[in-house]
């Protein structure tokens, strides 16, 4: 048996009916904290959803707060506290969690190569800052405290189960009774329905990933006396993922009718000997291929055959075959909260047999197939009530406690402890974490219990393995590693990035007459947003003004509103300075406006201190408003005269913009260009990094040469290539997947760079990402 089977299932979430609650207008970020209950009381939703508002003032999310979200995504609100910094609604509709970690990259890299990373920024609506990384970033975000590092988590107990582990059980609350009732059931009642097979990712005809799968052609009429066949497969890890190395098929009565070793088509990277028992020596002389066992199995099975397995979906995927009539013992013996019992536990608790003993090399596929078949036959013979009376949940919990050498503790209390790790949360629901990484970057997470680690040679191999392995696990961490930039290049990039932002927030306006009303001109340009500086330019024949705005939206609004207008009879031009850093600013502004995080956000200038209260007095005009973001002056704490409004949709934002810039409100505004986390970053610009607008910055010579020769390892080219690759991988994820892309930041003796996080939930309609 594969080791991760008992822990890699994606169990169906229970859907709770919610009563309808009236719509409410939420006016500010702090008011959103109270909207958890409002959202949860809305009518039943079919999709998990993330809030668009981060509660942190500076949009920086700590590693501990990130861990809060990951734990909540695994268990939901009934077992762990809700995240303190964001909202995840309808967590019970999540299917998977996937975290991509781009080691060596930071927020600086993201905005330096903003245009090149279009695939990623368009796919994720939510972005947030991360503090510079610690010595082990991954251990921090999954909550591996020192006492909980590898080797400290409970180990599986060997030997017989204690008889005193049984406890009184309320049969009516037993999940087996709730699903099957208390009376005996026939074979057909135990078959998985097509909907259940879809939910648990069984290969089905017509599914895109099953196009080349072979049908068993078993389409006979199924009855309670149809023949049962126990099936178990062993796999190895190849360059293309997991491939079949052994298949065992056992018929009723315990007779093994098929036991074949199989030579994989691709290069073997890991024989997984400790689990499969397969070694290079065993497999070397084998000539049997996958197509041979497919043909043999197809010939053996009668038209009404029922296949029985434990996490049978993985076996059928390894066989690349589709079979319509299946019983899965990991689902037949239902456990609380959608968890699954391990085959070894069921063999001992139900049949009194020891399997997968530690003194034996790997699992015996024939033995496992026979046990699986006997478990199905026991269920059919004795019925659900007999199973429920065994109180398997109490037996399993007692075993885990005794194996850990601990006193019994309340599970909920343990999970709600702030030091509980993501690994412990996964273990509590019988699931396992997949960790894909380069071997040299594995770190402490790789050696942790309940973590299936696959070490690769290169980023390319990590990507290839991710395509194959991610669908098999409910929680995956995929780590790519990129060479850190030299301190000199990092400093230069930092300087140029910050200067670029200053320049695109600056406009030149003119020409003006020498007798122009300077006070009126200043008042005119200040009506679009907060001004950092305004100077008269006298180097030209006629005077011009140079205005540096605090926010990019104000500069863009001034250009859109004033360029080409008549001032004192003269047509003026309003434009940005032209330097090598602003040559692509028009493209950049267009891309910023189309950024998924800015969709539904508007910028307004001219708001008063009572603006929020005025909005709340007219809620019907602003349905869909999620938050009002009112920046404050860091020196005096007073509210500034501009704000950002966040709406659920672009349409709601456009409707509000039309109203607020109309004659009744008399505000200036446009669609937003800059997300909140970027404002927080730009506020920290050191004065020495700025330069007078228009001065030339010369890129380092080696970078000029690299761009001219279009070397593939140049940072700009690498960002474009890997952004597209990861974007395609994201597109292949199943709907309902919570996905995070983390750029941890960098830390060295030369200084630190803060990180950046992107997150979102893959939706059904996201079949492709624009630009791929």
UniProtKB/TrEMBL annotation:
Write the record's keywords in alphabetical order, separated by commas.
Exonuclease, Hydrolase, Nuclease, Repeat, RNA-binding
Classification via InterPro entries: Nucleotide-bd_a/b_plait_sf, RBD_domain_sf, REX1-like_exo, REXO1/3/4-like, Ribonucl_H, RNaseH-like_sf, RNaseH_sf, RRM_dom
Name all RRM domain ranges. 505-579
Pfam families according to UniProt: RNase_T, RRM_1
**Gene Ontology molecular-function annotations:** exonuclease activity; RNA binding
In this chain, the stretch annotated as Disordered covers: 1-26
In this chain, composition skew of type Basic and acidic residues spans 1-10
Q: Write out the biased-composition intervals (Basic residues).
A: 11-21
GO cellular component annotations of the record: nucleus
- Which PANTHER family does this chain map to? RNA EXONUCLEASE 5 (PTHR12801:SF82), RNA EXONUCLEASE REXO1 / RECO3 FAMILY MEMBER-RELATED (PTHR12801)
What is the protein name given in its UniProt record?
A: RNA exonuclease 5
């Amino acid at each position: 048996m594969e080791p991760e089977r008992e822990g890699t299932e994606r169990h169906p979430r229970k859907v709770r009916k919610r009563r309808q609650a009236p719509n409410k207008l939420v006016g500010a970020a702090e008011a959103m904290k109270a909207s958890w209950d409002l959202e949860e009381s809305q009518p039943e939703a079919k999709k998990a959803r993330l809030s668009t508002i981060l509660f942190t003032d500076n949009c920086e999310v700590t590693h501990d707060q990130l861990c809060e979200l990951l734990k909540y995504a695994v268990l939901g609100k009934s077992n762990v506290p809700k995240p303190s910094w964001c909202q995840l609604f309808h967590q019970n509709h999540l299917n998977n969690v996937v975290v991509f970690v781009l080691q060596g990259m930071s927020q600086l890299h993201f905005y330096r190569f903003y245009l090149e990373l279009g695939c990623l920024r368009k796919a994720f609506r939510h972005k947030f800052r991360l503090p510079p990384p610690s010595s082990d970033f991954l251990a921090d975000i999954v909550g591996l405290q020192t006492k909980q590092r590898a080797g400290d988590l409970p180990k599986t107990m060997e030997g017989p189960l204690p008889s005193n582990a049984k406890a009184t059980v309320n049969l009516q609350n037993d999940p087996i009774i709730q699903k099957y009732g208390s009376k005996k059931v026939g074979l057909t009642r135990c078959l998985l329905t097509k909907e259940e097979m879809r939910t648990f990712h069984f290969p089905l005809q017509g599914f895109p990933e099953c196009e080349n799968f072979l049908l068993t052609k078993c389409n006979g009429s199924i009855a309670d006396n149809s023949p049962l066949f126990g099936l178990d497969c062993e796999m190895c890890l190849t360059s293309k993922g997991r491939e079949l190395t052994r298949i065992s098929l056992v018929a009723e009565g315990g007779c093994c009718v098929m036991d074949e070793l199989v030579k994989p088509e691709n290069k073997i990277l890991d024989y997984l000997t400790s689990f499969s028992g397969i070694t290079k020596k065993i497999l070397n002389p084998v000539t049997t291929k996958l197509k041979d066992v497919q043909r043999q199995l197809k010939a053996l099975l009668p038209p009404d055959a029922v296949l029985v397995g434990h996490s049978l979906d993985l076996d059928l995927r390894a066989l690349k075959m589709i079979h319509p009539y299946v019983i899965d013992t990991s689902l037949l013996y239902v456990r609380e909260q959608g968890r699954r019992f391990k085959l070894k536990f069921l063999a001992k608790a139900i049949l009194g047999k020891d399997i997968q003993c530690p003194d034996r090399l790997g699992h015996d596929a024939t033995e496992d197939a026979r046990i699986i078949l006997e478990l199905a036959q026991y269920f059919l013979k004795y019925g659900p009530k007999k199973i429920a009376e065994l109180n398997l949940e109490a037996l399993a919990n007692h075993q885990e406690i005794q194996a850990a050498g601990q006193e019994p503790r309340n599970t909920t209390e343990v999970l709600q402890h702030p030091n509980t790790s993501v690994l412990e949360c996964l273990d509590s629901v019988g699931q396992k974490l997949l960790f894909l990484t380069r071997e040299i970057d594995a770190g402490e997470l790789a050696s942790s219990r309940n973590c299936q680690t696959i070490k690769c040679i290169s980023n390319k191999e990590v990507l290839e393995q991710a395509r194959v392995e991610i669908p098999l696990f409910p929680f995956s961490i995929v780590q790519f590693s990129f060479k850190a930039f030299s301190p000199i290049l990092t400093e230069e990039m930092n300087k140029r990035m910050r200067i670029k932002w200053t320049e695109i927030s600056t406009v030149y306006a003119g020409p003006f007459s020498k007798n122009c009303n300077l006070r009126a001109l200043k008042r005119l340009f200040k009506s679009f947003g907060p001004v950092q500086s305004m100077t008269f330019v006298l180097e030209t024949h006629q005077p011009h003004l140079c205005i540096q705005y605090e926010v990019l939206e104000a500069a863009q609004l001034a250009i859109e509103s004033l360029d080409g207008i008549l001032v004192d009879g003269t047509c003026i031009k309003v434009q940005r300075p032209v330097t090598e850093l602003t040559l692509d600013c028009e493209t950049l502004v267009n891309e910023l406006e189309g950024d998924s995080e800015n969709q539904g956000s508007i910028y307004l200038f001219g708001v008063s201190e009572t603006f929020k209260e005025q909005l709340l007095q007219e809620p019907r005009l602003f349905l869909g408003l999620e938050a009002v973001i009112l920046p404050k002056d860091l020196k005096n704490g007073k509210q500034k005269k501009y704000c950002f409004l966040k709406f659920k949709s672009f349409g709601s934002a456009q409707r509000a913009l039309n109203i607020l810039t109309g004659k009744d409100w008399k505000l200036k505004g446009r669609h937003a260009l800059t997300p909140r986390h970027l404002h927080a970053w730009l506020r920290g610009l050191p004065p020495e990094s700025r330069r007078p607008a228009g001065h030339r910055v010369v890129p380092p010579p080696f970078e000029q040469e690299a761009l001219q020769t279009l070397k593939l390892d140049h940072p700009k080219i690498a960002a474009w290539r890997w952004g597209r690759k990861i974007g395609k991988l994201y597109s292949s994820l199943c709907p309902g997947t919570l996905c995070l892309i983390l750029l941890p930041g960098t830390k060295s003796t030369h200084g630190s760079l803060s990180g950046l996080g992107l997150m979102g939930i893959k939706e059904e309609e996201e079949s492709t990402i624009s630009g791929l």
